[in-house]
Amino acid sequence: AQSVTQLGSHVSVSEGALVLLRCNYSSSVPPYLFWYVQYPNQGLQLLLKYTSAATLVKGINGFEAEFKKSETSFHLTKPSAHMSDAAEYFCAVSGGGSYIPTFGRGTSLIVHP
Amino acid sequence: EAQVTQNPRYLITVTGKKLTVTCSQNMNHEYMSWYRQDPGLGLRQIYYSMNVEVTDKGDVPEGYKVSRKEKRNFPLILESPSPNQTSLYFCASSRPPGQGAYEQYFGPGTRLTVT
Q: Average pLDDT in the A89-96 region?
């Protein structure tokens, strides 16, 4: 069975600082990988996804993620945090031998002025 | 507009009173799923459906029922709600996961309180 680990339930950064949200997966074969964002009082929406076309994936709102097979990681980054980035972020995996998508526990991003 | 709708958005009920949360999608997706979200526990899958008349248990199915009689609808039924089912519920749909990088589309959520 595949699993997803998000390191850190909360990440706090200052406005303008680098954002790094960590995601590691376990899968016997390269899966499909996703990052979702959940703004307060809303459902989840897709931020970006890895489709094997390129290891560096660009998403909405300036976020990007890099697939590293050797490290089984798919960390999410943004060079400069904005107050509007404050939200819950979920890493998810599907495929890789399992049909059912698996979500990480989520990381709450807090942005300080 | 492609969307997943859920109703009601907010519900306060009492222990033991049967309730149904509806979910509908207009994207002709085969796969639909229900999740509950609780603080510190992330998203936990309750039930999922690969297609019409095909449903299966997720990680936390106890106390819930589902049905998939039509492709677009996937209602969640709580036959006898209990306070530990107080949570935020999300419905989601997608093309068949695992067959491609198909993201899930989420509804806006239903906040349920059982007293």
A: 88
